[in-house]
Amino acid sequence: MEDLFGGIIRENTSVLAAFSGGPDSVYLLYLLKEYKKHCPFDLKAAHLHHGLRETADRDMAFAKDICNRWDVPLIVERADVLAYARENKLGTEEAGRELRYDFFRRNKAPSGLIALAHHLDDQVETMLLRLIRGTGLKGMEGMKVLEGDLFRPLLAMTKEEILSALAEKNIPYVVDETNLEPTYSRNRVRLSIVPEAEAINPAFRRAMASFRTMAEEDESYLAREAEKIYEALGAEEKGIVTLASDVFRAPDALRRRAFRLAVEKVKGHVKNMGYDHIAAIDELEQAQTGKGLDLPGLRVEKTYGGIAFFVPEEEGPSEGEAALNEGRAEFMGHRFYLGEGDDFIYVKDPSAVVIRTRRPGDVIRLKVGHKKVKDVFIDAKIDRRRRDRWPIVTEAGEVVWVVGLRKAERQEEKSWQKLAWIPLNEM
Amino acid sequence: MEDLFGGIIRENTSVLAAFSGGPDSVYLLYLLKEYKKHCPFDLKAAHLHHGLRETADRDMAFAKDICNRWDVPLIVERADVLAYARENKLGTEEAGRELRYDFFRRNKAPSGLIALAHHLDDQVETMLLRLIRGTGLKGMEGMKVLEGDLFRPLLAMTKEEILSALAEKNIPYVVDETNLEPTYSRNRVRLSIVPEAEAINPAFRRAMASFRTMAEEDESYLAREAEKIYEALGAEEKGIVTLASDVFRAPDALRRRAFRLAVEKVKGHVKNMGYDHIAAIDELEQAQTGKGLDLPGLRVEKTYGGIAFFVPEEEGPSEGEAALNEGRAEFMGHRFYLGEGDDFIYVKDPSAVVIRTRRPGDVIRLKVGHKKVKDVFIDAKIDRRRRDRWPIVTEAGEVVWVVGLRKAERQEEKSWQKLAWIPLNEM
Question: Across-strand partners of B346?
């Protein structure tokens, strides 16, 4: 266990173990309480009663029983995942996760860790999802063993290994009732893609684990080198970040990362910035001083001695807007595309479609008259924080879909195309 | 077309275009003959009559007709793919590829290029196959536009884009009859994994293309930096490569690549060297002088001032042998594993299984008596070159399977386990 916990859990560490009662979390808690014999640290378990099925009571009773037997203090709380999911228009898996993490963070020690039982099978799914949705080397680092206050000691073990360790030691667990409906995408990866890959290579998950280790080694070196370049060539003043033009002499791998660091400095994040956006900045090397480039929520301009990154005042595509590009758009963690899907509307002219967040005065057409979008949100009990990020589809300036809540009444014609929506809100 | 061919095809370049008559190769030849109007270069097409189906005659006639119309000299040759596949125990796809490449190389100009019509769909399949089988960043560079004498100008286009370009320009083609049976693994990727991934992200192939570009940028920088380290710290003498111990101070990403460069220098290749093998070399940092590590076909030893890489005389696991590790082994481009598969034998004790190439005196048990393995090869018309790489499964020292050719007659018992085999010989 030294190799699982050593260097991370010390005598003064506080650990709150997420404890559903399912096999993964039981095995994690077992290892933690065993490790405590060698290295006394502060260990508590935390169980959220999801209020979901009849089995939730059974799971809670089981959690209490095990913690009692193992002499681990247990914190229990009740939540109504279904109601929270309904209120916030979330999938039950996502709702469950939000409530769990909130519960854990409220109950852990200020500088303590939350121990999570994610294993290699989860890791492989996460890596594949990122690869499929679009990522770079950084995304292929997957989940980290230590990530902020989250600690995942079991990441290198497969589910199968966990189950056989439990069987060998004769440790009881409940069947994973807390695995709420996985999202559409994760389900496809778990039930179709991983088994297909294992039919090609029975050691597929191990191969992904090695790939991940190499990705982490490579990315951490590249990130360090890029930071050196940023520190040597970057300057920040009044919300404007400039990079001296020597940045164009850096190798592609480092220049691209230095651009990302500049974007992150200006905007606080690099969401919505794909490879093509970052690569487009290179065109400024040959541009005249004062010429520039509009990226989502960002302007990049050629200056006398380099390039400047800043948030534009008014002009340029706002971050609160996305148009379809090749029939597709991503917006605030949602994907829209022309084609088949579970949820969709018909649009007449895809090139006139803009997806954005709410604006004062927004209305949506009913059979007779209009309704304020604000009232649509109020009826659905969407809180203010969520309203600011809620996607609204407009066509030719008219609100046609408050996504997931209300579609405009329009005379659709045969020639119109389906615009489908998938939520991407998933860890 | 400047962006497809510019910088690679010049006035003095000789290009031999692989030309099956299928849509991809027709579009490639079309672009090449159009480009010739701007930049006169030496263009020939090459068509191999596979002798496989009735349609092969039709394809050949079509190829001749198009080349005649487009005024491109055409080289045609006939081959018997089925016979070659049978003789060499290859799949028809692999046999077809071997014969085609041999044909192209015999007919291209000495310093000329072979233009191939691989497109983004092929590229995505290749990347996924490598990821599934186990690879690092280098493998995720995928196929390169220019790789030795192979030139693949269409790698950034999807099959769909090629088909619509052909439709738009009203260019005829034959239906891809030369797409011989794809291998088991590629078929699974093409028919199951890619469609599942596209159900999650309709822009999946574009996402893979961006990932590939980034992988190439990152890998080329890392490879250059590792070469600098190798040049600064490496020395070669009498087949022994040494790296000074400063190599242990290099970042993981570069040290691991410097080790690979040393292995490649000593052995001529880095096949059979997985991440774990390379990472194990790190343990030598703390070892006593003279202590060492046996890797497949390689010995690495701590010396006074660093580490030495060399091919061992006799000791250590020979490259011609593989034992099962966690129920699996890879050997000379073949994979063996305990479990279900199309082709398999029963083994009594997996830990006694060794897979190796032929040795003088090898015999295999028949119902009555034995047969020389040499005669098994002769009967199957396997040439000497292939015999040296042919996998032979032994259990407790006895030859039990000349893979694909002959199994030993043994009294199998219920408790015995299936050892399955998949060939990995695929580009």
Answer: B418
Q: Is A22 annotated as a binding residue?
A: yes
CA gap B114, B100 in Å, rounded: 11
Asked which of B200, B219, B250 is the last residue of a domain, the reply is: B200
The average confidence (pLDDT) of chain A is 88
**Residue A353 located in a structural domain:** yes
Give chain B's domain count. 3
The residue out of A260, A291, A310 marking a domain boundary is A310
Q: In chain B, helix, strand, coil percent, each to 5?
A: 45, 20, 35
Assess whether pLDDT exceeds 80 at residue A423. Answer: no
Kindly state whether residues B25 and B160 are assigned to the same domain.
yes
**Complex ipTM over 0.90:** no
Identify all chain A residues contacting B131, using CB atoms and an 8 Å cutoff.
131, 207-208, 211
Mutate to test the interface with B, among A133, A193, A200, A340 (most CBs of B within 10 A): A200
A residues 180-239 lying closer than 8 A (beta carbon) to B: 184-185, 188-189, 192-193, 196-197, 199-204, 206-208, 210-211, 213-215, 217-218, 220-222, 224
**Domain containing residue B255:** 233-310
At B83-136, the pLDDT tens digits run 888 887 777 788 888 899 999 999 999 899 999 999 999 999 999 999 999 999
Examine residue A186 and state whether it is found in any structural domain, yes or no.
yes
Measured from the Cβ of residue A421, the count of other Cβ atoms closer than 10 Å reads: 20
Tell me: do B305 and B341 sit in the same domain: no
- Do A299 and A336 fall into the same domain? no
B330 and B289 in one domain?
no
Same domain, A61 and A138: yes
Burial of B15 (C-beta count, 10 Å sphere; 0-12/13-18/19+): buried
With b meaning 16 or more CB within 10 Å and e meaning fewer, what string describes A324-334?
beebbbbbbeb
Distance CA A89, CA A376 (A): 13
Q: What pLDDT, in 10s, does the model give residues B129-142? A: 999 999 999 999 99
How far is the alpha carbon of A336 from chain B, nearest alpha carbon, in Å? Answer: 10
